[in-house]
Amino acid sequence: MNRRRLVHTLAATTLSFSAVLPWSAHAQAWPDKPVRIVVSAAPGSAPDIIARLIGEQLGAMWGKGVVVDNRPGAGGNIGAQTAARSAPDGYTLWFAHATPVVMNQFLFKAPGFDADKDFDPVVRVGVNPMMVAVNPAVPVKDLKELVTYAKARPGKVSFATSGAKNIPHLVGETLNQVAQIDMLNIPYKGSQQAATDTIAGRTEVYIDAVPPMAPLIGAADARLRPIAVTTARRIPGHEEVPTAKEQGVDLVMQGWMAFMAPAGMPVAIVERVAKDTNTVLARPEIVAKLRTLGTFELGGTTAALDGFIKEERAKWAKVVQAAKIERE
């Protein structure tokens, strides 16, 4: 047997043997050093806080700790590129959010990675609902009335968001599409400015995630009137706010966060990370903390995340195309 045939035979034998090993064979040897969690967001941001919260728990379970590596920029592309170029050995996980996974391929000409080919799904952490609220002076009390109000004033009703080409902006554009209305987006540099101008009456509608919205809609200091959430079900802590779908508007769109891995990470480690993450997400103190950070519908299976991503990518592709947003 020549040398080349010997190498190929040994490689094939090794692969065949590893394929039939029980999943615990890989997992028992892992981890023997700290695991790096790449976060596509800045320190102190909601994704960073959540990644550190969960990472601390996982590090304690694994006995080797975790290291959070913040790589913000370009709508999440920088972090995604960093994770995609890492070895699929189980020592780099990507704490991904919806934008780079299912949106950026439609928003950027060259994001620098292929979210479908470069990553394997591991486990969804949770979803981040968007809320729709109005200035109390606007004469609408629910989403149906807002649709009627906007239809009577095409191009004259504006909705404020914390930026352009982000999830709140595209939720507003989707509302335009499904309700056949023509509201104008006013993008701001952050949630505070967007909320302030809606409270002041410079814009009529404000769309954002729960954390920046919550202090403005409480009974004690209701500076804005919430009229809808964009999840499939009402969210804990804000059960009085109906979903858009309950009000006859087919709008189910939200942000979300998940652990993903460089493509090719051993299945045993994927299963271990998913299992341990679900254990963390079932702890009452973690559930309570994540609710304050606007994260709901926690955990799930790897297969469920894979199907969810496919559905989300198809959904956002249609939204971006219909909104006629040019790629950067």
Total of DSSP H or I helical runs spanning 4+ residues: 12
| CATH third-tier fold name of the largest domain | D-Maltodextrin-Binding Protein, domain 2
Question: How many domains is the backbone divided into?
Answer: 2
Mean pLDDT: 91
Low-confidence stretches: 1-21
The helix/strand series, from N terminus to C terminus, equals HHEHEHEHEHEHEHEHEEHHH
Q: What is the name of the CATH superfamily of the largest domain?
A: Bordetella uptake gene, domain 1
| Main sheet summary | 9 strands, mixed
User: What is the CATH-assigned architecture of the largest domain?
Assistant: 3-Layer(aba) Sandwich
Binned, the helix content reads 40-55%
Shape: globular
Strand content: 15-25%
Main attributes of the structure:
D-Maltodextrin-Binding Protein, domain 2, disordered N terminus, 9-stranded mixed beta sheet, 328 residues, 12 helices, alpha/beta, single chain
Describe this structure in words.
44% of the residues lie in helices and 18% in strands. The protein has helices at 3-20, 24-29, 46-62, 77-84, 98-107, 143-151, 167-179, 191-199, 210-217, 267-281, 284-292, 302-323, and strands at 35-39, 66-70, 92-97, 119-134, 158-161, 184-187, 205-209, 225-229, 254-262. Strand 1, helix 3 and strand 2 (66-70) form a beta-alpha-beta unit. 42% of the residues are buried. Strands 1, 2, 3, 4, 5, 6, 7, 8 and 9 form a nine-stranded mixed beta sheet that branches. The protein has 328 residues and is an alpha/beta fold. Helix 3 (46-62) packs across helix 10 (267-281), helix 5 (98-107) runs parallel beside helix 12 and helix 7 (167-179) packs across helix 12 (302-323). Residues 1-21 have low confidence and may be disordered. The protein folds into two domains: 33-128 and 255-323, 3-Layer(aba) Sandwich (D-Maltodextrin-Binding Protein, domain 2), CATH 3.40.190.150; 129-247, D-Maltodextrin-Binding Protein, domain 2 (3-Layer(aba) Sandwich), CATH 3.40.190.10.
